[in-house]
Design a protein that fits this description.
Length: 557
């Protein structure tokens, strides 16, 4: 996958029009010269042929290493300050295209471009910015560079793009059942290397396409099934939990930070040219905010330290593309620190800042904090926030199940009021235990408010969380379902009394499933139980009016 500019002209920086957006593209001539270098490098070690498994992964890592090293060499030769600004601007443009895509405002050509190229373009720019910050040793200078400098930047972009591509291929081969083969073509072929689908990759593609499509559908369905604001976007609820800790540690409340400070920063002007990017004296900015909120500027500095990216971060924690949770990268820290003599400046992309703030709400829920923010008061408040999110989701599931006729509730404490039976200390209680008159079965639901991603590594993490041998979600859920089967009659009688609903003697079936707030890719690797987003289940149950799965069903003798 690559990006090719239209109507190339020699010695002029290249752009491509995506509907009304002017987006940078590297020259094809530079792409061709790097391709020749990469082919020469590959043929030093590997012969033509088709490779699979570990060897295919070895080739992918070998090619990644070539492009990454080539990127490092080219980055050293360019004016990092100028091109950091230039790259932030390109990221802003991609964000606007992305917004138009989600609002169905692109032409068909724009949609096709964005679906095939957009996500990789954004990753390419992000990785390239990290690399430039890592080598930011030139004096502050935003003068327009020469054509030769833009040629070097073309090299940087192309190498970043290929490094990202081969890292993804390597991860998919490693984590997703050898989902690619690598074919090395004979000398003088048009393409010297390509990836080939395997039977595993075709199966993976079907699963992945369903995952992406269902996630998109879930987002559109949530308004139908959620009353009020979703918890992850409910700043009022977050503020009640976080305000005090933020005030204590950072000198201003969570509300003041998310609403007032960020609004102040984002109103620095539209980013319509390289020169109009925000560039603010860091010391003066922190001083002004401290004075505005009548607080200690040292506390404001701690707050910003968790959002600033500088060269020294990479000297302590080297940027590793395989570590997708790495905290020191531009997508986690939108403020870039640039020094000129004794003055330190901050610059940023407004759109990237907005995306980070949107993501920050989720990161606080899942306790993914910048190292600078790990004060005891903050940790305690995020623990409570995380717990509240889980409780909110459990209630959301209960309310929606009750609406479609599955009556029940969250059951904690003693499950059955009989001393001879197990209680929740043994099985952990039930997130939802109820009865479906339509299907005449006891329903057991395990709720997981998790944070899935769209990378092979994050897929593997989710699968591991479910399938760990000792403390995995599946092991714990099996205990609950096994207990329910052993104690079925007494459980049914107790549930009937609690619900004030006469569950018939003919009810001899349990239906058990995992509900997630957002669909996890682990759904495709759980054989025993359905694993679905709550919106998927509710919307399908409304159509079918029954338990529509062919698994997660347990007949009681």
């Amino acid at each position: 996958m690559d990006f090719r500019a239209n109507n190339e002209k020699p010695n002029v920086v290249q752009f491509r029009m995506i509907d009304n957006f002017k987006l940078y593209m590297p020259r094809n001539t530079i792409r061709g010269s790097i391709k020749l270098e990469a082919e020469k490098h590959l043929r030093k070690k590997f012969k033509p042929g088709i490779y699979s498994g570990k060897t295919a992964n070895e080739i992918s890592k070998y090619m990644f290493a070539f492009y990454d090293l080539r990127l490092n060499k080219s980055v050293k030769k360019i004016s990092k300050t100028h091109f950091i600004h230039f790259s932030l601007l390109q990221y802003d443009i991609t964000s606007n295209i992305h917004t138009m895509f989600h609002h169905k405002g692109l032409t068909q050509t724009g949609v096709e471009f964005w679906l095939s190229k957009g996500p990789l373009y954004r990753k390419t720019i992000g990785y390239l910015i990290d690399k430039m910050i890592n080598q930011l040793n030139s004096p502050f200078n935003i003068t327009v560079p020469s054509v030769e400098a833009y040629i070097l930047f073309d090299e940087c972009f192309i190498c970043s793009e290929h490094a990202i591509t081969y890292s993804i291929i390597s991860n998919e081969i490693h984590y997703l059942n050898n989902s690619h083969k690598i074919k090395i073509h004979p000398v003088n072929s048009k393409n010297f290397i390509e990836t080939l689908p395997t039977s595993e990759s075709k199966e993976y593609s079907l699963k992945h396409n369903y995952y992406v499509d269902q996630t998109t559908l879930d987002i559109s369905l949530r308004n139908k099934y959620i009353r009020g604001r979703p918890f992850e976007k409910d700043w009022e609820k977050h503020g009640k939990i976080l305000n005090s800790a933020f005030k204590q540690v950072f000198g201003l409340s969570y509300f003041e930070f998310m609403l007032d400070v960020t609004d102040l920063l984002i109103k620095t002007g539209d980013l319509d040219s390289n020169e109009s990017l925000p560039l603010i004296n860091k010391e003066l900015l922190i001083k002004q905010i401290a004075e505005l909120f009548k607080t200690d500027k040292n506390k404001i500095n701690i707050l910003f330290e968790g959002l600033i990216l500088r060269k020294s971060h990479f000297q302590i924690n080297s940027r590793t593309i395989w570590k997708y949770k790495q905290p020191y990268r531009i997508n986690k820290r939108p403020f870039v620190e640039i020094a000129q003599r004794k003055t330190v400046y901050l610059t940023w992309s407004n759109e990237m800042l907005k995306e980070r703030l949107d993501r920050l709400d989720l990161d606080l829920i899942f306790k993914n904090l910048p190292p600078e923010w790990t004060d005891k008061a903050i940790l305690k408040s995020t623990d409570l926030l995380s717990n509240k999110a889980g409780v909110w989701f459990e209630k959301l599931v209960k309310d929606n199940l009750n609406k479609i006729g599955i009556i029940g509730d969250k059951i904690k404490g003693k499950i059955i009021n009989t001393s001879t039976l197990c209680n929740s200390k043994d099985v952990g209680g039930f997130d939802f235990l109820g009865y479906s008159p339509q299907s005449n079965m006891i329903i057991i639901i395990e709720c997981k408010y998790i944070d899935p991603g769209f990378e092979p590594v994050s897929y593997n993490d989710d699968i591991s969380d479910f399938k760990k041998k000792k403390q995995g979600y599946l092991v714990k859920f099996d205990k609950k379902v096994d207990w329910a089967q052993v104690n079925f009659d007494k459980l049914k009688n107790e549930l009937s009394a609690r619900l004030s609903y006469p569950i018939p003697k003919s009810c001899k079936t349990i239906g058990a499933a995992f509900f997630t707030y957002v669909l996890t890719f682990a759904y495709a690797f759980i054989e025993k139980y359905p694993c679905v987003s709550f919106t998927e289940f509710i919307s399908n149950y409304e159509k079918e009016n029954r338990w529509y799965f062919d698994k997660g069903i347990f007949k009681i003798n």
